[in-house]
Write a structure and sequence with these properties.
The protein has about 475 residues and is of the alpha+beta class. The protein is built from 12 helices and 13 strands. A hairpin with a 2-residue loop joins β5 (about 190-195) and β6.
């Protein structure tokens, strides 16, 4: 188009020049009139060409702006696609946070940015590592109290982004508060977006200053909103990862503890059976089996309570009541003997609970077997007390009492040997046996587990010592 206009102007100029030359030679006036008309036409063609040129330049500039806009949009869409795809390929929560702040800085062309997470104990917003463009010293100085002031609460409860393009304006009260929070960074412009997980705010994204010195606008608000959604996913995944890791650690510890307890209890059972086998005096097989069954039941009752109640703590009164039930069914036939359990509540760790269960089993068995003649009536009391940093368990009956020459330290019965060694070795306590209108056995041991002060012996070693 421009070439055609240029050629037309050249022709017009040539014709006008020829007519002017002819007028000089001939002097005819009509030649001048024709030349004037042609000159006017040439002027019109020139003006039209100039307008066309301006329109062409305007169109070219518009196309360039549109191409630049489309390129910017393509960059943003590509970055957002990379972010969405990249999050699915990250191996750890920390990598997710690093990826997030890096992409945030790239997408908004930020000089500095950070994701501030709520410290629930101190009620402060603190930068979550890693940050972008902020040194370690600067990050440590950044603490935003989640106080009751209007600005903090407005940020914390907002789902829409907020930006300030000049926080140095003294007339703006928000700007003054932001300058106070980030005086170590000395920002000029700030963009803010709260991150929500479900219906709960968990943190705030802060971006500081554009690299080209430009201002934040509506497009930046849209982009940071999209990034906040990805931050929500990263935080939620981090929490799930931490919870799964915690659950795995707990289950591993529980499994190890269960294996340890099963091994120790099996060793205890083997030791008890071995002691029955080593006794020199013959005894009826039924009696031996009944004693062994009740001892195993005492150990098993501790595990039953652990599975039904709270793992790691056992209520002694409940154990004692269960032991009373199966011991009286075994040895209480034909006797009108009542067994009562009372006293202070006592909660024990599984190891000491198992040892005390065996001790109480032996003492109740002895009372039912020896304290009351056939068909006689009586009472057996089991009482627990906690005082002066000690636990005291008393098993008392109103039966015939002990022989005059009875010495607890020299008593050779298997039951007494089991009681003495379990009280001293496992419970780290004392055992006393005396006659007081019947027989009274007293077990005293520290309230705090003795194994915290010394190594806990294995049951097999205790059995060997017996």
């Amino acid at each position: 188009m421009r070439r055609a206009i240029g050629a037309s102007l050249v022709v017009h100029v040539g014709v006008v020049a020829g007519l002017a030359s002819a007028y000089v030679l001939t002097g005819h006036t009509w030649l001048i009139i024709i030349a004037a008309v042609l000159a006017g036409d040439a002027l019109v063609v020139a003006l039209f060409g100039r307008a066309q040129a301006r329109d062409s330049e305007t169109a070219t500039a518009a196309l360039r702006l549109q191409a630049r806009f489309l390129q910017e949009k393509l960059r943003e869409l590509t970055t957002l696609h990379d972010i969405a795809q990249g999050f699915t390929q990250l191996e750890s929560p920390r990598a997710s946070y690093r990826y997030l702040v890096q992409k945030l800085s790239d997408l908004l062309q930020l000089k500095r940015c950070a994701l501030f997470i709520l410290d629930e104990e101190r009620l402060e917003l603190v930068p979550h590592e890693p940050v972008y463009g902020i040194s370690t010293g600067e990050a440590q100085a950044l603490r935003i109290p989640l106080a009751e002031d209007e600005l903090t609460q407005r940020f914390w409860q907002s789902r829409e982004p907020i930006y300030y393009n000049d926080v140095n304006i003294d007339a703006d009260p928000d700007a003054g508060q932001i300058r106070e929070w980030f005086r170590a960074l000395r920002p000029r412009s700030v963009i803010i977006q709260t991150v929500w997980v479900g219906q709960q705010p968990v943190g705030i994204i802060f971006g500081f200053d554009k690299r080209d010195g430009g201002s934040f606008g509506a497009e930046d608000s849209r982009l940071i909103s999209i990034l906040a959604t990805q931050a929500s996913v990263a935080i939620n995944n981090s929490r799930l990862f931490d919870q799964v890791q915690l659950d795995l650690d707990v289950k591993t510890a529980l499994l190890q503890e269960i294996n340890h307890r099963v091994r120790n209890n099996l060793a205890s059972i083997v030791g008890l059976l071995s002691m029955e086998l080593m006794r020199p005096e013959p005894r009826p097989a039924k009696t031996v089996l009944m004693n062994s069954i009740n001892r195993v039941k005492s150990i098993g009752q501790v595990h039953t309570m652990l599975s039904e109640d709270s793992f790691g703590a056992v209520d002694f009164q409940s154990i004692a009541e269960a032991i009373v039930g199966f011991v009286t069914s075994s040895w209480g036939s034909g006797r009108q003997v009542r067994v009562d359990v009372s006293g202070d509540p006592v909660v024990l760790d599984p190891k000491r609970a198992s040892s005390l269960a065996l001790v109480v089993n032996e003492l109740i068995t002895n009372s039912l077997k020896y304290a009351f003649p056939e068909e006689s009536e009586g009472l057996v009391e089991i009482q627990s007390r906690v005082q002066d940093g000690e636990i005291q368990v008393v098993v008392r009956d109103d039966g015939v009492g002990l022989p005059d020459d009875f010495d607890v330290e020299r008593a050779g019965s298997l039951g007494m040997r089991i009681v003495r060694n379990l009280v001293r070795t496992d419970l780290k306590g004392r055992f006393a046996l005396e006659t007081q209108n019947g027989t009274q056995a007293t077990i005293s041991f520290p309230l705090i587990p003795a194994r915290q002060l010394s190594a806990e012996p294995e049951p097999a070693k205790v059995a060997a010592q017996v």
